[in-house]
Amino acid sequence: MEILERAAAAESGLTLAELAAALGVSRPTAFNLAKTLVVRGYLEKVSRPVHYRLGPAIDALARRRQERNWRAVAETEVLRLARLMPGTFAFVAEPVGGEIEVTLRVDPARPGTLERPGGRMLVPYTMALTLCFQAFWSVSDRASYEARYPFDEYGRGVWGDEATLEAFLGECRRVGYVERGAPGPYRLAVPVSGADGRVLAVIGVSRQHESAKEQARVSRALIKELQSAARTISGAT
Predict the structure, then answer these.
(1) CA distance 221 to 170
(2) Helices 16-23, 27-39: crossing angle, 10 deg rounding
(3) What's the rounded Cα separation, in Å, for the pair 120 and 137?
C-alpha cells in the first residue's frame, strides 16, 4: 500500500532508488516488491529512465467501485418508483457487449422485489429504453450500435424513413426523455449520464394507459420522478 501511495504522490513516478529510499529497503527488495505489483497491474514500469507509476489496475478498481455506487443507488430508485406509482413497471437498462439489456426490473405485482433479469436483450428502434440510448448516446456509440442493427433491416418497418426517426430522436433530446404510447402500454425513459457525460444507463417505466385526463396527470408525475431518479443516480457516478 505504501508503494502505491508513494507512486501516486509522485507526478512522474518513482525510480527504483527513490522507491527503495522511500520504503527504507534495499534496491533488490524494492525491485521484487515493484515487480509483483507490475505483474498485477497496480504499477506500470516505464523505460528511459526506468521508473514506476500507478498502473491500469488502479483505475479499474476505481471504476468498479464507482459502478457499485451508482448501481446501488439505481436499485433504490427503481424500488422507490415502483412503490410511488402503483401499477408501474420500473426498469434500468445498460449496454452489455454491444447489446442493450434490462439489468434491473421491478414488477408492480411485487413492488418490494428487485429482479435482475440478465441476458434480456431489447429490440432496437421500437422500445422506449433502446430509443433513449439511440437519442442520447454519443455519435460513435450510436453508430456502433446501429452498425449492428441497420435501419433498413430493423427500423424502416417502424419509422418508414430515417428522417422521421431523426425528428423523433431530436425532439427527445430537446425535452430530455423518450415517451411512447399506443400501440401498447405507456412507456417513458430517461438517460443516466456518468461524470464524463456519457450515457451509462437508461431508467424507464411502463404502465397501462389511463383516461386522457388522468394520463396527462400521470405522465407529468412520472416524468418528474424519473428525471429526479436519473439525476440521483448520475450523482453517484
Answers:
(1) 23
(2) 110
(3) 20
The per-residue pLDDT for 196 is 86
Per-residue model confidence as pLDDT tens digits over 50-99: 788 877 776 655 555 555 689 899 999 999 999 999 999 999 999 998 99
Question: 0.70 cut: is pTM over it?
Answer: yes
Question: How many Cβ atoms from other residues are within 10 Å of residue 126's Cβ?
Answer: 16
160: its cell numbers:
418508414
- Domains of the chain are 2-54 (1.10.10), 61-234 (3.30.450.40)
Could you tell me the three cell numbers for 169?
430522436
- Residue whose C-alpha cell is 433479469: 117
Q: What is the 3-state secondary structure (H, E, C) of the chain?
A: CHHHHHHHHCCCCECHHHHHHHHCCCHHHHHHHHHHHHHCCCEEEECCCCEEEECHHHHHHHHHHHHHHHHHHHHHHHHHHHHHCCCCEEEEEEEECCEEEEEEEECCCCCCCCECCCCCECCCCCCHHHHHHHHHCCHHHHHHHHHHCCHHHHCHHHHCCHHHHHHHHHHHHHHCCEEECCCCCEEEEEEEECCCCCEEEEEEEEECCCCHHHHHHHHHHHHHHHHHHHHHHHCCC
Model confidence at 11, pLDDT cuts 50, 70, 90, reads low
Strand bridging mode 89-96 / 99-106? antiparallel
